[in-house]
């Protein structure tokens, strides 16, 4: 499972845009998005983490590769732009 934290994903439009971008790279990928925690999880059948991250970037977002730290639930600490694609 490949996981990204996408802090600038803030609404349903963001979720659908990211999902479409990931499916364009790997149409058979299983994509799970939790908007509340800004997590995007992908079970890819064809693409690697770099390709998937690039797809999210090309869609206009700032993905940060997420690794489970020793204290589960903490992010990698990277900052992303604030705001929403819708305004």
Structural class: alpha+beta
Distance between the termini: 32 Å
Largest sheet: 4 strands, antiparallel
How many β strands by DSSP?
Answer: 4
H/E element string? Answer: EHEEHE
Helix content: 25-40%
Residue stretches low in confidence (pLDDT < 50, at least 5 long) are 70-81
Could you please say which CATH topology applies here? Alpha-Beta Plaits
> How many separate structural domains?
1
- What is the overall number of helices? 2
Q: Which whole number gives the mean pLDDT?
A: 84
Per the principal axes of the C-alpha atoms, what is the gross shape?
globular
Multimerization state: single chain
Major sheet: order of its strands?
2-3-1-4
Give the C-alpha Rg.
12 Å
CATH classification class:
Alpha Beta
Share of residues in strands: 15-25%
CATH architecture: 2-Layer Sandwich
Explain what this protein looks like in three dimensions.
The chain is an alpha+beta fold. The protein has a single domain (2-65), classed as Alpha-Beta Plaits (2-Layer Sandwich). Helices cover 28% and strands 18% of the residues. The chain has 2 helices and 4 strands. The protein has helices spanning 12-25, 49-58, and strands at residues 2-5, 30-34, 39-43, 64-65. It has a 4-stranded antiparallel sheet, with helices on one face. The longest helix has 14 residues, at 12-25. The N and C termini lie far apart (32 Å). Residues 70-81 have low confidence and may be disordered.
